[in-house]
Amino acid sequence: MVVFKGPIIPTPKTLDALFEPTMFRDYVELVSGRLEHYLADRSVRGLALSNPPALLETAQALTERPSAASPEADAGRLAAILDLYIRTGIQLYSPGYMGRQFSGPLPLAAVVDLAGSILNQPASFYEAAQLPNIAERIMADELNRFVGFAPHRFTMVTTSGGSLANLTALLAARNDRLPHAWSEGLAGTRQPRPAIAVGADAHYSICRAAGILGIGEGQIIRLPIDRERRIDIAAAKRTLEAARRHGLQPFCLVGSAGSTSVGAFDSIDQLADIAAEQDLWLHIDGAHGASLLLCDQLRHRLHGIARADSLTWDAHKLLFVPAACTLLFYKDKDKARGAFRQDASYVFDKHANGHADYEGAGKNLECTKRAMIMPLWVSWAMYGPAPFADKIALLCRATTDAEKIIAGEPDFETLHVPQANILCFRYRPAGLPESRLGNFQVEIRDRVRAEGDFFISQVELDGTAALRLVMMNHRIEPTHVRQLLRQIRKIGLEILAGAERAQPEVSQWV
């Protein structure tokens, strides 16, 4: 058994004692002290990746108790668990964090999330979560000022993540364009095979949704992309025509506003033209990039968004609230309710005196969901939109600055002009064989992660791996980017030197 040192939180003697307010206060004081130190740490650090069996052993030791009937409640155990939680996580507030699309939440948003955990109001139904449902209505109106849907015609619902929002939007599209599918399945559509058209770089959740909805991956029409990895409009029209000749009937066109791979923005206006001409539902996956609507200098990336039928928007990315908090917008609120056509008297009250107009239960898959809107609403109410817009603009400028720094290094290459806060590049020293380029990036990324100063990611572009930066921390400065490049160069040269010393027949690089 592990023995912990530190102050003792009195062990609860009764069931009622487990819920004592004083215990809540003691736990919060201990945890908040640890988290304050975490937030104050400005050091450059990445990810301390643990060996899973070793981490399992450590966590099991923290689980051991003197007896099942008398659990320990000492502060040392809780502190050890929290320290392990922090140490094994991605360091979101460090300038060494440049690897993923989730952000360090605003402290205020995190505190409101804590309140939500105690209050535990299931937010799909008005009577169970009155203020969260009102807050959802307020934030829908606030954010729609940037989207531009008709004020009295649109609706918004929160979902637990962008993948679920995309699935829900595609379900609404399917039921709108294939009205018999909900009751009869796709066998009842009595027409050519229904299909969904997506850009080649679309998020994997779109294809996953096609499988879940019974469309099938074989009915995914993959639209070509241009050099900036946006849907090529002329090629897309030709591809759709060819798909119809081969027995497919597209009903939905999906565009990206900030693709996961490189942060590319499809031309929404031009996609809307295609959708109008061909009677397609236009869904925009703006999970990452919809937040740019808040910035005057960046809003043009989503020009034409008011012509879309639906929009996915992740607040836990560039609106800096705890995950998951996704906003799914519909241009037409009636079509939103068409996603689900069910009666269940134990939750759907036909005599609710208008309450249903203020709840999302009829528009989303989840019966029980967190009051995820509250951290966003409270932050918005306290600060207004300006801090969000300022940070987004800063992150995008930092990414542009990083692109200039990397492009100025002769042994590095940037792979696109950043449109938001994502940048892909490669370390490409002279003499590196083209056939080894991708594996070289992967090994560099793994070695960078292992050294623990920086956390970056990797992505395959046209079949070859590249290094990927996602700027989510406003404390990242050009000096940190240069420090990262020095580390990449050092690691890369070490890899090449090791390959040269190896036997030619087993060398990975030569």
From TrEMBL:
GO terms for biological process: carboxylic acid metabolic process. One of its GO terms (molecular function) is carboxy-lyase activity. Gene3D superfamilies: 3.90.1150.170, Type I PLP-dependent aspartate aminotransferase-like (Major domain) (3.40.640.10). Its cofactor is pyridoxal 5'-phosphate. Keywords: Decarboxylase, Lyase, Pyridoxal phosphate. The keyword Transmembrane helix does not apply. The modification N6-(pyridoxal phosphate)lysine is found at K317. PANTHER family: CYSTEINE SULFINIC ACID DECARBOXYLASE, GLUTAMATE DECARBOXYLASE-RELATED. This is Diaminobutyrate decarboxylase.
